[in-house]
Amino acid sequence: MEIRLDGEILNLRFSCAHFLPTHTKCERIHGHDYAVSVEIEGANEKGMVVDFLLVERHIREIIDEIDHHLLIPNQSDVLEWHKSGENLLISYNGRLLSIPEVYTFHIDADSSSSEDLSIFLLNSLWERLKDEKNVKSLKVCLHEGPGRVACAEKQ
Ligand SMILES: [Zn+2]
Asked: Which residues pair with 3 in a beta bridge?
């Protein structure tokens, strides 16, 4: 059985700034208003796969942490960053950014593309749902903007 949570209808939204060093246009800092949708497959035990409200709460906790930050991909091999006082100095493609560290959010990923961000969200939600025995697989779809969606899944 499958259950779905539609992030656009449920308002599971957040906004972030990011940059993609390997992309000509997107190497400049810009932002997106994202929405997160989820599909869960699992056993329907006593009329429920997993509580919709529980999943919704987990998603909100995850995206509230990320919301209104500049995303820094920790595993990128095309950018470098280090702390300088309360700032983070980020360099890539011969450019140097200086930004208060509290304005940044690090994700364990190669980049902050929607594809890699959807994997980060998938892993974060999967970890929070690990005690839900009925859940067999999870798919997280990240809406980057109208008509643009990246989905990651695991089981
Ligand atoms: Zn972008």
From this structure: 40
